[in-house]
Design a protein that fits this description.
Layout (H helix, E strand, L loop, with lengths): L2 H10 L8 H7 L3 H14 L4 H8 L7 H25 L5 H9 L2 H31 L10 H16 L3 H29 L4 H19 L1 H14 L9 H4 L8 H29 L10 H11 L5 H39 L17 H18 L3 H29 L7 H67 L18 E5 L4 H14 L6 E9 L8 H24 L3 E9 L2 H15 L3 E9 L5 H6 L3 H11 L4 E7 L1
Parallel strand pairs: 1-2, 1-4, 2-3, 4-5
Helix pairs in contact: 3-9, 3-13, 3-15, 4-11, 4-13, 5-13, 5-18, 6-7, 6-17, 7-8, 7-15, 7-16, 7-17, 7-18, 8-15, 8-16, 9-13, 9-15, 10-11, 11-18, 14-15, 15-16, 17-18, 18-19, 21-23
């Protein structure tokens, strides 16, 4: 074992077997763990969403009662709508898959681009807000170290996520439970302690509404409420995370997903709505260097009548758990973002390598990209939560709006085919209307303050994806032409095929799913070395990627396709009277699996030479090298180091 392999194993853990049912069972998330891993993003948004919304009211804080009610209702509308997504797409994909299948590929691209940015910002804003919560406990002189702390925490989460989803969730579980228990107690106690103010709250809200309408007019009051409501849009984020990651849930997935959504909706509505209510009942006012949550929870704890040092310790604990939960929430970006990239890679919008799983069965490339992008945005914004909230909310509600519009289209097209379609259409339409209003308000009111940047980033992502897709489409056409050229090769009878003789010269071909590439190599060898090789061995090391690992049926389909491809090559050789045999292996690293198969082949056929085809482009550049796997060169190096000969045959397209 090399030093790198040994160090990697110690840091991220030992390799897992992707074909083992036990492995799949062990890493699948039950509803409770899914609530922790995927729901923390939504619940954690109660640490900054309600505050941003409440602050937007300015001096008119009595209107906060509307916000508390609207927040709770909106959470349930969006959650129920996304339950439909889970039903329609039980293999995952969420907003991206909804938009792609129900509206069209370009709507899917827009949704996917917004989702990628959404999850990058999930990491950045959760870390920034968590650091704010923790530094509320410290003197003002420590504020200058917040950015460095955020960078360190993102780096730590990258390392943890490379170990696997369930591994990191187990590490962060105590923080999540601590947050839920302490905040539930403080909200219930805080409302109960000032319950005598509740009867006055509704009349005060109505008086403030009437007075403000008399001064500004009803249109201005509505605009103020909509702006404040949209400013708190971050509160609803994370609700789509379950639908994006249904494929990692325990069976039955749809039921597990719906239970998880129920946990998320109840906990988020209670926490976010309860916190806004506390702001009102305890008349919370901003204090420099502290979050509004720190102010109101400090007041609630102080009212308990404990000793000052106990009060201080309790507040420190609560705020530390707030910060900790935000770090748990940041982890949602590392779960959802790579899943979106994997689905987009399956459709060739991003490099195919984003589909590949690591030895720990996580999409390592996606985790690294999400982490590095979050680091870049955190550094660029200086960890400013107010700016990040604007960027975040625009991307989130663009995705929500596209997805819910897709559901509206679906139910309208299938009207009358399924029961309760009218109710489901109405629910989807209500969710679409809510999300569209918030999105428009954010773009109009906050365009100059950062909304334009979100639009620019999403447009840039879309442009890059279009470039990548166009190249892959062109390459597929060229490969299809090669396949068509070789499709007409004469194919004789395969009756009574000759058996391979291990003592005779043997040509070993590394093949994939393309028949053209394999036949190109086979016929080239026959032309250059006529009658020299007596055995023809075909080796296929198939990659178990995130797409094929999505479910047992996908795995069976992949295995069947691989066997069909190898059987074709063997039958082709047999029809020519040539002895042939095939070897097949599955794993997360095709280089490792090919090297293992090569050792096995050499042991049985010691007089062998390996051959593989490699695509050669006339005008190659860094983008082409990024988009296409250089597996042939990597395998050749491995085989040469093991004393085996391998020849790479160029296939120009």
């Amino acid at each position: 074992m090399s030093l790198y392999t040994e160090l990697r194993t110690k840091v991220i853990g030992a390799p897992l077997d992707p074909l083992s049912k036990e492995t799949r069972h062990n890493i699948a998330l039950v509803a409770f763990f899914a609530w922790v891993g995927l729901g923390a993003d939504g619940i954690s948004s109660s640490n900054y969403g309600p505050e941003q919304s409440f602050r937007a009211l300015g001096e008119h804080t009595d209107l906060g009662l509307y916000l508390a009610l609207a927040t709770a209702v909106t959470v349930f509308i969006i959650a129920l709508a996304y339950n439909q997504v889970i039903e329609l797409f039980p293999t995952g994909g969420g907003g991206y898959r909804v938009a792609t299948k129900l509206i069209g590929p370009y709507a899917g691209l827009a949704s996917g681009a917004a989702l990628v940015l959404d999850y990058v910002l999930t990491i950045a804003i959760s870390i920034a807000s968590g650091v704010d919560a923790l530094f509320s406990l410290l003197p003002l002189a420590f504020q200058e170290h917040k950015l460095a702390a955020g960078i360190g925490l993102i780096s730590l989460l990258i390392a943890l996520n490379l170990r696997g989803m369930k591994e990191v969730i187990k590490v962060l579980l105590p923080i999540f439970l601590g947050f839920i228990l302490t905040h539930a107690f403080l909200i219930i106690y805080g409302i109960g302690a000032h319950a005598n103010y509740l009867p006055q709250l509704i009349p005060a809200t109505l008086r403030e509404t009437s007075s403000l309408a008399g001064q500004l007019g009803w249109a201005q009051v509505a605009a103020l409420m909509l702006l404040a409501y949209s400013q708190g849009g971050g509160t609803y984020t994370g609700l789509e995370a379950v639908s994006n990651n249904v494929n990692v849930l325990a069976e039955p997935r749809v039921r597990t997903g719906k239970i998880t959504m129920l946990y998320m909706a109840l906990s988020l509505a209670f926490t976010a709505g309860g916190i806004i209510l506390l702001y009102l009942l305890w008349e919370a006012k901003p204090v420099e260097g502290q979050t509004l949550n720190a102010v109101v929870f400090g007041s609630v704890i102080q009212s308990l009548g404990w000793d000052p040092w106990v009060n201080k310790t309790a507040l420190w604990t609560v705020l530390a758990l707030e910060g900790g939960l935000l770090f748990v929430a940041a982890n949602t970006g590392f779960l959802g973002g790579p899943a979106v990239l994997s689905n987009m890679a399956a459709d060739s919008w991003v490099p195919h390598k984003f589909r590949y799983l690591s030895t720990r069965l996580v999409t390592e490339n996606g985790i690294l990209v999400m982490g590095l992008a979050a680091l870049g945005i955190l550094i660029w914004t200086g960890g400013s939560v107010s700016l990040l909230v604007i960027l975040y909310s625009v991307s989130v509600f663009l995705t929500f709006a596209i997805s819910l519009f897709g559901l509206c289209v679906y139910w309208w097209r299938h009207r009358g085919e399924q029961g309760k379609w009218i109710a489901r259409l109405a629910l989807s339409a209500a969710g679409f209307l809510v999300c569209s209003v918030i999105l428009v308000m954010l773009l109009v009111e906050k365009f100059a303050e950062g909304g334009w940047l979100t639009a620019l980033i999403i447009a840039a992502i879309i442009g890059i994806c279009l470039t990548i897709r166009n190249h892959y489409s062109w390459a597929k056409v060229q490969i299809r032409k090669v396949d068509e050229i070789f499709a007409n090769q004469p194919f004789g009878s395969v009756a009574d095929p000759p058996k391979p003789d291990p003592s005779l010269p043997t040509a070993v071909f590394l093949v994939g799913s393309s028949r053209g590439g394999g036949l190109h190599a086979l016929l080239w060898v026959q032309r250059m070395f006529p009658h020299h090789f007596r055995n023809f061995i075909f080796v296929n090391a198939r990659t178990v990627d995130a797409h094929s690992y999505g479910g047992s049926e996908d795995m069976k389909l992949m295995q069947m396709e691989a066997n069909v491809a190898l059987t074709y090559f063997v039958n082709f050789c047999n029809s020519k009277g040539w002895a042939a045999k095939s070897y097949l292996a599955f794993g997360t690293d095709p280089i490792d699996e090919a090297a293992k198969l090569a050792d096995q082949v050499r042991e049985e056929f010691p007089n062998c030479i390996f051959f593989a085809s490699k695509l050669v482009f006339e005008h190659e550049n860094w983008l082409i090298r990024l988009l296409h796997n250089e597996a042939a060169l990597s395998i050749q190096r491995r085989l040469h180091l093991h004393g085996m000969q391998m020849v790479i045959l160029p296939m120009k397209i």
